[in-house]
Amino acid sequence: GEAAKSAALAGPEILGIVATADLRLDNLDDQLAQHEQAGDGRLRGIRHALARDDDPALVIRGNGPEGLAEHEGFLRGVQRLAAHNLTYESWHYHHQNAAFCAVAAQAPETTVVLDHFGTPLGVGRYEGTLDTIFEQWKLDIAAIAALPNTIAKLGGLAMPDNGYGWHARELPANSDEIVDAHERWYHHAIECFGPNRCMFESNFPVDRLSLSYRTLWNALKKIASRYDETEQAAMFEDTARRVYRL
User: Fold this and answer.
1) 144 and 97 in contact (C-beta within 8 Å)?
2) CA distances from 171 to 165, 166, 168, 228 (A)
3) CB 212 within 8 A of CB 172
4) Are 113 and 87 a contacting pair, CB within 8 Å?
5) In this model, does residue 85 exceed pLDDT 90?
6) pLDDT 10s digits, 45-65
7) How many helices (H) does the chain have, and how many strands (E)?
8) Which of 8, 57, 70, 164 is least enclosed by beta carbons within 10 angstroms?
9) CA–CA dist 130, 151 (Å, integer)
10) Contact 153/116 with Cβ under 8 angstroms?
11) pTM for the whole structure
């Protein structure tokens, strides 16, 4: 409905939808057919999140079932998405990157999209450990990127659970603060995947807790400034148009 409204307005149009479905279902094909009909030609992918962590400090807690990444029905579902020309996408936490990598490896015909850098956590038992997490995260990202069917959606690092504390401030973060805190995560992912397999994302409205939409995109422009025009075009537009057939 929102996509149809956008098509009638003068501003940006919603051209693609990533929906939710339980990929373990025996009647998955029927479910996907219903999504395709409801999406009126805009369905482009399915996100069945792996995110699971029992730390009570998490503000936005994932409720992924225990062992979902190893569930045989789930893996068949991820593989089945290829026949429908749909992506598989996951929101999960940094300690689940290896499990996500294993899923992608077992579905080589499906385009698999990593959301939010694998959400490095910085609250609760993870508070003050982002530098340590970063070192293992770099290895995990390199392993994911080594699989040719993977794409990186870069953004979503301003959630309260990332541990920067911006959501609790009287004034939101400015673009230079975002660059200083986040650029190492971006540049490593871009180095591993290459700009043609990276696409910038806003993760709004969730990131609105920490910063404004305009500020985020100004920060992304600053992060992207070291890359040439073709590489910037890929990350800001071209990769998304190709992956989501826009």
Assistant:
1) yes
2) 11, 8, 9, 33
3) yes
4) yes
5) yes
6) 999 999 999 999 999 888 899
7) 9, 6
8) 8
9) 23
10) yes
11) 0.95
Look up residue 95 and give its two tokens. Answer: 């300690």
pLDDT value for 74: 97
- 8 Å CB contact between 201 and 155: yes
Residue 35 is classified by DSSP as H
Output b/e per residue, 115-131; b: 16+ Cβ within 10 A: bbbbbbbbbeebeeebe
pLDDT in tens, 188-226: 999 999 999 999 999 999 888 899 999 999 999 999 999
- The answer to whether residues 161 and 122 touch, using CB atoms and an 8 Å cutoff, is yes
**Rounded to an integer, what distance in angstroms lies between the CA atom of residue 2 and that of residue 31?**
21
Tokens for 82?
A: 């290829």
Looking at residue 112, its pLDDT comes to: 98
Token pair 């079932």 is at which residue? Answer: 65
AA letter at 86? L
166, 60, 34, 24 alpha-carbon torsion, rounded to 10°: 140
Q: Does residue 72 sit in helix, strand or coil?
A: helix
The position carrying tokens 């073709």 is 230
